Amino acid sequence: MQNQIGTSRSFSLSDPRFRAWLFQIITLVAVVSMGWFLFDNTQTNLQHRGITSGFGFLENSAGFGIAQHLISYTESDTYARVFVIGLLNTLLVSAIGIVFATLLGFILGVARLSSNWMVSKLATVYIETFRNIPPLLQILFWYFAVLLPLPGPRNSLNIADSFFLSNRGLYMPEGHTADGFVAFVVAVLLAIVGTVLMVRWANKRFEATGVPFHKFWAGLAIMVLIPAISVLAFGSPFHWVAPALKGFNFVGGWVMIPELLALTIALTAYTAAFIAEIVRSGIKSVSHGQTEAAHSLGLRNGPTLRKVIIPQALRVIIPPLTSQYLNLAKNSSLAAGIGYPDMVSLFAGTVLNQTGQAIEVIAITMSVYLAISISISLLMNWYNKRIALIER
């Protein structure tokens, strides 16, 4: 009798486990039903309008030019190649922006905590200015107010006779692989392996004897000497072609178009302001007793910050820093405002208008940004686990 009562109660709404399963099943059915409704409604509307679906359009010829492409491209190439070019351009501006925003953000975050009044206030003014102006306005400012008013190629700003800045972009030397390229790559890989082994040996030596080792200078020497020996033995890995003014424009070299410059500067300046506050809060989260203990051991302010404060602050800095990296990658889609050929402007703009394959084009574009964001999150989560403090 008791077993029968227990069994009947297990299917009652008063049982928390039964309610949990019931609500999950209802939610799953609702999500599947909504998905099927949207899919069926989309297919019906496409059939009524005579629009064919599928990804076969990717094999069609694009028929338009692209201002910047990291791989070879002609107007007769397919939409699939246009997709690759848009993806590479998005990754390019995201990678450059993340690197420079991180460096500038860390400098500003530390500067805001400086005991020097002028340095601290300048950092504060920068942070409060750039983080409170929408990124699109900053992109438009750098593009229309700073870069486009620059002089033309004939009167461009000459930097060391190798870099030329004009209203058509930043022209710089372009490297082409030479005979010593393979040997140079092998040398760099050997230098990286040697540096890793040296760091591990130095850490074990420090744990065993307490004697420190200059890992930075030793690693720098390894990373410079081994590739330098490769260059001396097998020749230069690159053949550099400098831009030269011919007629009304430069010929040769590689150009960073004004759209890319404006987008990179704006996203770097905007994101660095937020990273600076993250760094400042991370440093402030470390107990002041850590600084006093380091000073009592004879460490100066610089080594204390690098070896004591920053390593402990990273566990607070990394999670919100990941969010800023994601924001920068997604904000790169604002490139459409100035015509930089990224995924949104090139693929979800021009290709969509020409083909009319709205669902397929938008689905591909959304999938790309989702994949980029997930990749950044996975990489940062892995790094966060590596630096996490391990309690004994």
Automatic annotation (TrEMBL):
One of the GO biological process terms? amino acid transport
Any stretches that span the bilayer, and where are they? Answer: 21-39, 82-111, 132-150, 180-199, 220-240, 260-279, 334-352, 358-383
Which keywords, in A-to-Z order, does the entry hold? Amino-acid transport, Cell membrane, Membrane, Transmembrane, Transmembrane helix, Transport
PROSITE patterns, per this entry? Answer: ABC_TM1
Q: Where in the cell is it found?
A: Cell inner membrane; Cell membrane
* Pfam families registered for this protein in UniProt: BPD_transp_1
For this record, the Gene Ontology CC terms, alphabetical, are: ATP-binding cassette (ABC) transporter complex
Instruction: Name any one GO molecular function.
Output: transmembrane transporter activity
**What InterPro entries is this protein classified in?**
AA_ABC_transptr_permease_3TM (IPR010065), ArtM/GltK/GlnP/TcyL/YhdX-like (IPR043429), MetI-like (IPR000515), MetI-like_sf (IPR035906)
- Topologically, how does it sit relative to the membrane? Multi-pass membrane protein
Q: Which residues form the ABC transmembrane type-1 domain?
A: 87-380
Looking up NCBIfam families in the UniProt record yields: HEQRo_perm_3TM
Classification via PANTHER family: AMINO-ACID ABC TRANSPORTER PERMEASE PROTEIN YHDX-RELATED (PTHR30614:SF37), MEMBRANE COMPONENT OF AMINO ACID ABC TRANSPORTER (PTHR30614)
Family note: Belongs to the binding-protein-dependent transport system permease family. HisMQ subfamily.
What's the protein here called? Answer: Amino acid ABC transporter permease
Which organism is the protein's source?
Pseudomonas turukhanskensis
Q: What is the lineage of its organism?
A: Bacteria, Pseudomonadati, Pseudomonadota, Gammaproteobacteria, Pseudomonadales
